[in-house]
Design a protein that fits this description.
about 800 residues; alpha+beta; Jelly Rolls; Immunoglobulin-like; TIM Barrel; 4 domains; 6-stranded antiparallel beta sheet; about 35% strand; disordered N terminus
């Protein structure tokens, strides 16, 4: 039955979108259908055979339903039916039926008449129902979300919602968990359904193109595609007004443009204007995210027909993807990107506008300026909030992993059409959002050079051909943004220190751009997330409930955290995992930022938040409680950042610290990285090296170290590197450390007596302590009692 249902879904979707695609909201009046819905589970064919779409069908036995809301589709239960009744709207203009989002395939009937269908979960779609309305109407909708279990031969575009290790029941565990754990994907009407009042002429899309031609003049091109819904010739005009949206200043621009449309005709109109003294849109770390508002009133047949309101920003984006390093530039200003991957919720209907806005604030508090929307599209509220808050977005299409492996020609044709259709939809939805600065077609495509181990799937051209075609389409529709055919090909999805290798190996990388790096950690012990996880102790090393939540036992064992059985309590396991995650991320960010513009153009953490109660690489759990790594990453992402370069070729690894040899002359380098255009000029640098804890060692070694201690500090005036400059060495202390123990090096920059940057780094010196030796930490530098008297005499 499941395979038959997939074939029906695919057959209905071959035409893909048998509906109107009206991307901007433009209704003169809008009535949401948010009450009276009823639902039943049945396949598309079963529902049609039983008469579910018919006007006279009795749905009293159906369950009441909340719309919008997502459900979980499981194998064999991959379709859900909805019905709702509504009266004829009391107006004399046209009535549109608008769906703001349906996951994944929607088939729509009104009063028993098939209106059409739409494929894809993130774009709105519309039907003109003016000619089909009765006094009392019945709307029937069948939503299908095919559940695919052969992940190498996927056909449907759900992105990380049906194939990733960041979903409940991760892909790596498919078929390996007990029967109580069910593989599922989202399904249902997840955005509002509404009746909209419009006239005879509507706009399919409105693009606001802008380019600064001189320092005080910008050229604004407004492009729109009008559609005549009537069979008669329609004449009318556009009344256009452009004004500042979130700042004061500038005289609003007003203009009019006449049009003439034949019956059921489609026509593109272009209006060009000049903006004097334009305010540019900048990311929050570099300026103000200035927005403009374009208002377009459409008049047809001497009546108001539609009203559009679009915000946009004036900014220019460039991306150089050289082998020796990527460089993003916003308005001609190079930027080293600092950020994370992001998915708000696995069930997107629960991602409220307030939640999305709060998540962006959490990203900013962690000193991030970019979020990558990995293999999915977020609700509209995220893009609107990102525009206003100045957070940059890297937008993927909902493509991840391998598709149509060894598939037939029919499946290949469907897949290609689906990708190209959704690429076009994504362009129209994102065009006016200045926060969206780059597109990537396919996350972790099988043709990526890093996935050669896939063998036949890697060498197949099917995925690559479609990805390249989609990238070319995106570039032609929107030349203002760079487009990548694949994410994880030229950029690095870094697994060092987690799935393979040692965390110290990160220092040997010179990536052009790091779009994923991280390690897993458990949520805090007092987090509400533990209501959904097995919190008992001891817990099995391969606990299925943990694995369902994303836990990766092999990586925990090899990374150094250790499996749960290696820890005496749940709190100890939480502490060890969070300490390791925080250390790895701080070390990785530190090493990659040192290569700013020399090799590396940015670094994105694997996950900012969890989209469900998970054990994952996220910095904040599902209820947005921060793990230790959140603060570590915020410190490592500080726009003006100080770090110390230890002589690592002489160092050994001791747990999460580096150990330097005792008594050898060490050449340290204090490095400054500046991503903040507000800082420049002279600043005072103060640095200091001191021992925090000591082992019990001989009194003469402590005495020798005490006499040398006064040389372990310094200060000087330095020039802060420009925001466009690579990392710069600002001090090079030479020290000889004679005493074993734990050391701390600190550095601080101040301007006019105000500290603007601070650094603190710990390392070990000497041999590891023997079992008979103790570490004393009563106060920094405290000695064993037998040596204190001799050293005190020497000091006198």
């Amino acid at each position: 039955m499941a395979s038959c249902q997939k074939e029906q879904c695919e057959e209905r979707s071959m035409a893909l979108n048998d509906c109107l695609s009206l991307f901007p909201s433009q209704a003169l009046n809008r009535q949401e259908l948010n009450a009276g819905w009823r639902t039943a589970i049945a396949t598309l064919g079963e529902g049609e055979d039983r008469g579910f779409p018919r006007l006279d069908f009795d749905d009293d036995a159906w369950a009441p339903a909340v719309v919008p809301r997502l459900h979980g589709a499981t194998s064999g239960n991959e379709a859900i039916w909805y019905r709702v009744r509504f009266p004829r709207p009391r107006h004399r203009q046209r009535t549109l039926l608008r769906f703001d989002g349906a996951f994944l395939v929607a088939n729509v009937w009104l009063n028993g008449r098939l209106l059409g269908s739409h494929y894809g979960y993130f774009a709105p779609f519309t039907f003109d129902i003016s000619s089909f309305l009765l006094e009392e109407n019945v709307l029937a909708v069948c939503i299908e979300a095919p559940v695919e279990l052969d992940l190498s031969a996927k056909r449907h575009l759900m992105g990380l919602f049906n194939d990733s290790d960041t979903k409940p029941y991760p892909s790596r565990e498919l078929g390996k968990l007990g029967e109580q754990y069910v593989w599922h994907v989202p399904m249902g009407l997840w955005r509002p359904v509404a009746l909209e009042q419009v006239g005879h002429v509507v706009a399919e899309w409105l693009h606001c193109e802008s380019r600064v031609e001189q320092g005080d003049l910008a050229r604004l091109v407004l492009r729109t595609r009008l559609r005549n819904l009537d069979g008669r010739i329609m004449t009318g005009e556009l009344a256009i007004r452009v004004a500042p949206e979130n700042f004061e200043g500038g005289t609003p621009l007003e203009m009019r443009r006449a049009f003439r449309l034949n019956g059921h005709d489609v026509q593109e109109l272009v209006v060009e204007v000049g903006l004097v003294d334009p305010q540019l849109w900048y990311p929050w770390t570099h300026g103000e995210p200035a927005l403009y508002r374009a208002e377009v009133d459409v008049t047809a047949d001497e009546r108001r027909s539609a009203t559009l309101r679009e915000t946009f920003g004036i900014r220019e984006v460039n991306l150089q993807t050289r082998a020796e390093g990527w460089t993003f530039a916003i308005n001609g200003r190079p930027m080293f990107m600092r950020g994370a991957n992001y998915c708000s919720q696995f069930f997107l209907d629960t991602a409220t506008d307030d939640m999305l806005k709060a998540d962006l604030e959490l990203a900013k508090q962690a000193n991030m300026d970019m979020l990558r929307l990995n293999a999915h599209v977020e609700p509209p509220g995220l893009y609107e909030s990102a525009d206003r808050s100045g957070v940059l977005l890297w937008q993927d299409l909902p493509l991840i992993g391998s598709y149509v492996h060894r598939a037939d020609a029919r499946s290949l044709a469907f897949f290609r059409d689906a990708v190209l259709s959704q690429a076009e939809e994504l362009t129209h939805l994102g065009y006016n959002h200045p926060s969206v600065v780059t597109y990537a077609v396919h996350a972790d495509p099988p043709w990526s050079h890093s996935l050669k181990w896939l063998g036949e799937r890697h060498t197949e051209q099917l995925n690559r051909d479609v990805d390249e075609e989609a990238a070319a389409l995106l570039r032609s529709l929107d030349p203002s943004r760079p487009v990548l055919p694949g994410a994880g090909d030229q950029d690095l999805h870094c697994r060092l220190g987690w799935s393979h290798g040692h965390w110290r190996d990160l220092a040997g990388l010179s990536p052009a751009f790091v779009s994923e790096v991280g390690a897993q950690a458990l949520p805090n012990s007092n987090s509400l997330v533990w209501r959904h996880l097995n919190r008992g102790w001891p817990v099995a090393d391969d606990d299925e409930s943990w694995r369902y939540a994303g836990y990766q036992p092999a990586e925990w064992s090899s990374s150094g955290i250790g499996r749960p059985s290696a820890h005496p309590s749940r709190d100890a396991c939480i502490r060890a995992s969070q300490e390791y995650q925080a250390h790895l991320l701080r070390f990785a960010v530190d090493r990659f930022r040192r290569q700013k513009f020399a090799h590396c153009g940015g670094v994105l953490i694997s996950q900012l938040v969890d989209g469900f109660p998970a054990i994952s690489t996220a910095l904040l759990d599902h209820v947005r409680r921060p793990k230790r790594a959140y603060r570590s990453v915020a410190d490592a992402f500080a726009p003006l950042y100080l770090t110390v370069d230890l002589p690592e070729n002489q160092a050994a690894v001791d747990g999460l610290l580096l150990r330097l040899p005792r008594g050898r002359l060490q050449h340290l380098r204090i490095v400054c990285i500046n991503d903040d255009p507000r800082f420049d000029g002279r600043a005072r640098l103060r640095w200091r090296i001191e021992r925090e804890r000591a082992y019990e060692t001989s009194w003469w070694r402590e005495l020798k170290a005490w006499f040398a201690r006064r040389r372990f500090s310094g200060h000087d005036w330095i020039t802060i590197p420009d925001q466009r400059d690579p990392a710069t060495v600002i001090a090079e202390p030479l020290v000889r450390l004679h005493a074993d123990g734990l050391y701390r090096v600190t550095a601080e920059l101040d301007i006019g007596g105000k500290a603007v940057a601070h650094m603190e780094h710990r390392f070990l010196v000497g041999d590891p302590p023997r079992a008979s030796e103790q570490v004393s930490a009563a106060r920094p530098g405290q000695l064993a009692p037998r040596d204190q008297e001799a050293l005190a005499e020497a000091r006198r």
